[in-house]
Write a structure and sequence with these properties.
Layout (H helix, E strand, L loop, with lengths): L1 H6 L1 E5 L4 H13 L4 E4 L7 H6 L8 E4 L2 E4 L1 H11 L11 H27 L2 H22 L16 H11 L2 H8 L10 H11 L2 H6 L3 H20 L1
Parallel strand pairs: 1-2
Antiparallel strand pairs: 1-3, 3-4
Subcellular location: Cytoplasm, Cytosol
GO molecular function, one term: glutathione transferase activity
Catalytic activity: RX + glutathione = an S-substituted glutathione + a halide anion + H(+)
Length: about 230
């Protein structure tokens, strides 16, 4: 019976994917049993291509044989389908809409800037860094009011959906800085985000879910070298 229950939820992911990790974190916080399938993205499984034929990307959540794709969509599905605590979204529709706005801002703006910083050099990297700094300032001012508690936690007092999205993209920022050779977040300029990211990174649920910094840095360095090789040919 337990095996049947676990088989109801399957997650196709990749150990270093920020987007996969946010789904893993949500499942663990909700206490939802699931079966995990690690994907080798250069050699994608038939199941991944079957469940996500449009993009062929991770993560893919399969619930009772039905696939759900795109991490933010999956997080909403999890919260709507499993209404147990902790709830990822606030109950008020207006507050949910505001949270959606900032999570989309993180994915659409800051993630794009991070990719530029990681995979470009010279003027292109400088331009990406300036955009990142500007967008980071906007984010800092925009999300402060959501964190009224002294210390963020995944207990319903903090905006969990926003925290999961934020830690997935910006949590490893020190690793990104090391690999890219640039300073992404300045504590004196963005003290709120610096403290928030540190507090979220220290939560046991995050430590359990996310990969070791050294292992992640090695892979990011590999991706950077591949990108630079491709751009020089």
């Amino acid at each position: 019976m337990e095996k049947e229950k676990q088989a109801e939820v399957k997650l196709h992911g990749m150990w270093a994917s920020d987007f996969s990790k946010r789904v893993e974190l949500a499942l663990k916080l909700k206490g939802i049993p699931y079966e995990y399938f690690e994907e080798n993205l250069p050699n994608k499984s038939d199941d991944l291509l079957k469940y996500n034929p449009v993009h062929g990307k991770v993560p893919v959540l399969v619930h009772k044989g039905k696939p759900i794709v795109e991490s933010l969509v999956i997080l909403e599905y999890i919260d709507e389908n499993w209404k147990t605590a902790p709830r990822l979204f606030p109950t008020d529709p207006y507050e949910r809409a505001r949270i959606r706005f900032w999570t989309k801002y993180i994915d659409d703006q800051l993630f794009k800037n991070l990719i530029t910083a990681m995979r470009k050099q010279g003027e292109e990297q400088d331009k990406g860094m300036k955009e990142f700094a500007k967008n980071l300032d906007v984010l800092e001012e925009g999300i402060k009011e959501f964190y009224s508690c002294a210390k963020p936690a995944f207990d319903g007092e903090s905006p969990i959906f926003l925290s999961i999205t934020l830690i997935g993209i910006l949590g490893p920022y020190k690793t990104f800085e090391k690999v890219a050779g640039v300073k992404l977040i300045h504590p004196e300029k963005n003290p709120f985000l610096t403290n928030l990211l540190h507090a979220l990174s220290e939560l046991p649920e995050v430590k359990e879910c996310f990969p070791p910094a050294e292992k992640f840095a090695t892979l990011m360095q590999h991706y950077k070298e591949l990108s630079l090789q491709q751009s020089s040919t």
